[in-house]
Specification:
Blueprint (H helix, E strand, L loop, with lengths): L2 E5 L7 E6 L4 H8 L6 E7 L3 H13 L4 E7 L8 H13 L7 E6 L1 H13 L6 E5 L2 H7 L7 E3 L2 E5 L7 E5 L8 H18 L1 H9 L1 H5 L3 H21 L14 H10 L6 H18 L5 H9 L15 H10 L3 E2 L2 E2 L1 E6 L2 E5 L4 H11 L7
The structure holds nicotinamide-adenine-dinucleotide (NAD).
The site of nicotinamide-adenine-dinucleotide has 30 residues, from helix 4, helix 5 and helix 6.
Length: about 375
């Protein structure tokens, strides 16, 4: 199944996303964009590179692209300013020109640091994304956000910088570890819950095919998830308004993630954050108890957590306060009016957050 989407950007440099199988079509795609016969720095990680780097290099060599590479240790701890600086100096030492390419081959970590590097060198090199995780395919590789972390503050250095092209080979999802697969699914579920009730119902109906990683179902799921994100980011490319809806589950999720650094994955924290935000929506009588329980319980078949052990609620609240989603007008929280309709809310109190965190805190008598 081949799918294609075009994302409009504010600078009119629209870019395409191709959802396909195999790496063969990469050559024709880049040739059509005029990117043959130049140099490319492929940024990848220690798990992805042994699996796919040589194949990608070979396809690029066939159209006269000479490849250099930079391999990061896998995992979030590589998303640092020190690593992005190192890669920038490497580009300078290799005398890369403004017309050369930066290519991200990996998950969201590789995508985020590569986009940041691409945006900085010579004030911006053409940037190609080849996402290899479900999270990166269904969410992080589009929309132009990038960044690197500092200590436990996520994405504290970053820019908005749009890729020139995104190439998705869904075959690579077969080598993704189970926990990573469901981690990515959390962002898919989030996109459905905030904007598209029909998509949400389709996800529940397709549960078995998704968990079996049926190729046609995954391609359709990624396409649907990207379509939600496309609508949101095209309307608000720089997160001045409704793009914040994509942060559903992220306000408390990010704070939990930074408190539990290393033990929970991003998508798992987003799942916990979505349960907490749905609980607040229910307590504010915006959704019914049944809707809240359905959202919570439908994460379980997709192996996502709905409770968490050993959390320091005071520390989480403190971290929410310093999160960038807090601006002069107060904390920007994303709540639900119903499944498929999220809204920005600025009235969430510390007490409501504490009650929601109590709700997701694991206890022996959890029902
Ligand atoms: N820019 C955005 O809009 C945006 C949105 C959401 C998340 N993010 C960021 O994305 C990052 C998380 O991304 P992620 O979940 O993809 O994590 P990741 O990049 O760390 O990848 C997860 C793991 O899977 C491995 N892997 C990747 N592809 C594989 C494959 N095909 N086969 C086998 N192993 C593979 C990686 O080596 C890594 O160990 C976070 O830093 C988060 O902040 C960014």
């Amino acid at each position: 199944m081949n799918e294609r989407l075009t994302i409009k950007t504010p600078n009119s440099k629209n870019y395409d996303i191709a959802i396909t199988t195999g790496f063969d079509a990469l050559k024709d795609e880049l040739t059509a964009l005029g990117f043959k016969s130049r140099r490319a720095l492929i940024i990848s990680d220690s798990k992805v590179a042994p699996l796919y780097l040589e194949t990608v290099k070979q396809k690029l060599n066939e159209i006269g692209i000479t490849c250099e590479d930079h391999i990061l240790n896998e995992g979030e701890s590589s998303k640092t300013k020190a690593n992005s600086d190192f890669i920038l100096y490497k580009l300078a030492d290799l005398k890369f020109k403004r017309s050369d390419l930066v290519i991200a081959l990996g998950g969201g970590v590789v995508g985020d640091i590569s986009g940041y590097v691409a945006s900085q060198y010579h004030r911006g090199l053409p940037f190609i994304q080849i996402p290899t995780t479900l999270l990166a395919m269904s969410d992080s590789s589009i929309g132009g956000k990038n960044g690197v972390d500092h200590n436990d503050i996520k994405n504290v250095f970053g820019t908005f910088y749009f890729p020139s092209f995104v190439y998705m080979n869904t075959d690579v999802l077969n080598t993704l570890e189970e926990r990573q697969f469901y981690n990515g699914f959390a962002e898919v579920m989030k996109n459905a819950i905030i904007k598209d009730e029909k998509f949400y119902v389709w996800l529940i109906d397709s549960m078995y095919e998704i968990c079996d990683r049926d190729p046609a179902t995954l391609a359709e799921m990624i396409y649907k998830s990207l379509t939600v994100k496309k609508i949101v980011v095209e309307k608000d490319p720089y997160e001045e308004g409704d793009r914040a809806l994509l942060n559903f589950g992220h306000t408390l999720g990010h704070a939990i993630e930074s408190c539990k650094m290393g033990t929970l994955l991003h998508g798992e924290c987003v799942a916990l954050g979505m349960v907490a935000a749905s609980h607040i929506s229910y307590k504010k009588e915006m959704i019914s108890l049944e809707e809240y329980l359905e959202i919570r319980d439908m994460l379980v078949p997709f192996n996502l957590p709905i409770t968490v052990e050993d959390i320091d609620i005071d520390e989480i609240i403190k971290r929410v306060g310093r999160d960038k989603k807090q601006d002069d007008a107060g904390l920007k929280f994303i709540l639900l009016k119903k499944i498929g309709k999220a809204v920005i809310d600025r009235s969430v109190t510390e007490e409501e957050m504490r009650a929601a965190l109590k709700e997701i805190e694991y206890t022996d008598d959890f029902e």
